[in-house]
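Quick entry, no commentary yet.
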Amino acid sequence: MGTDKALNKKQMAGTWRAHVMLVLAPLGLVLTVTACDTGRQSERPATAGRLGRVRSGCDLITAATRAETAAEPRTTDPGGPGVSEPRCTVDLRMDLESAPAGAEPSEEIRLAFVRAGWTKDLDAAADGAGTTAFAYRKSDVRCEVSGGRPASLVDGEIVEDGYIYLDADCFAADLDGAAAPTR
């Protein structure tokens, strides 16, 4: 009986996935939680085209962020051919005093994806006080973006928290559309 339970748990682990986006709008907070089976290796190693699409997604985000904020975001490389789960990230944190007036890269990133022929994932969109989260897809690659100029409610007024942030991930998605394991 113990072996049967272990087998059932292992079988279930291969199909278990959840993706939750929660926006705490009154506080201006965005919490993104991604969970999936990390014990299963991807059945498809990265081809040059797939790896190129992952890189292309992060390049679009980086260029739009740089253009909007005049800052250089931190990025990671997705790896080379044969990587089982290519993933790259783009991160930015900066205070408003260092940014051009009104800078917020989210809209420019959305436009960059549309111009490059990516498809918006309507099920992965959320907005809060000064923050946003969204995803775009192209073929077997998905990019998730969370960012903005968070704000708080102080004495009945919305007050910006004084910084801009951007967290983005581009990765090779499974065929069924679920997210690859988180970083």
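second:
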Amino acid sequence: MMTLKYIKIKWSKLFYCVGLVVFSFFLAACSSSKSSEPYNEDLAKYLPQTQEVYYGDNQYYHEVTNVEQSESNHEYEVRLSGEIKNNYKGTNADDFTFTQSYKVEGNELWLTNTGQHLNDSLLVKACILKAPVEVGKTWSFKSQDLEGNKYTVDAEIITLSDDEVTVSYQIGKEDYEVRTIKYGCGTTEFEKHYQYKGAEGITGYHMDLNQTDMSEKEEISQNADPIDDMARFYDDLDSVTVSDSVRKLVVAFNQEWTRYSKDEDNHLLDLIVDDSSAYEKMKQIEHNKDSDMEFVSFKVINAQAVEKVYEIVEVYESQGQKFYNHVKYTLKAVEGDLRVDDFEIILNP
């Protein structure tokens, strides 16, 4: 005959088992409901579909050579792969190749980048768009860069047309990125704004909207009339490899130069050694608030890394016309940071 104590134990075990079954079913239901959520078809319209060429600053460009697609009820992914061509001289294939994955999961479009020299986002993975797509829409996500630094990113849709959307991404307190995404194209324009020693630097790329392949562009270039000797001279120059710190300083110095010459701010002086030859020369610059001169690109043609002396050909543009400066920079490390100690204009046609 079963005692009352034995009956209580049996019932407690029964309730425990039933509880486990119900809890397991609840977890399975939650998991399956998330994975079974269909992908947003409106977001899928923004995925790239064709091979394209993208141009950036300092003679950078990357070219998509392969497009692969995979689709299920739950996600739609387009994988791009291709080649990177810029002034960096690499040592293996990884230095010149990249992959990108555009993946729609539910109401989110995620972009994942691989490639050490792809001039795209600071972030390895980013939620670049979220439905519903409407101006003022905001969202946040967590990500990290190639070095493992973690960020909380705040995104906002800032412009929208029938087939194109522009989104800004605030990364930390000072850095931000802007990306334009178009139906059937993915990213058509990308800007990365960063702070370097108190000065703002800008880099990025844009799609070649003329859709002319590189072989055709080279043929057109070869058959063109040589009306601009300096342009042809610049295109034929071989660049040398320099460190990222040198490249960032040159970009920031030239971008701040245009602002300083207009008397807009004095951030340029933060990039110069105090009481140096460069500092004295900058104090003698005449300001012109009406100037529309903008920095375009540069090539390092000679580098003496030990002496920190670099010869650089710079390109500026004003009213559609390009100007070329051949400048010798002398740099100096100040408390671990590179600054401009002197500069000499060798050629200013």
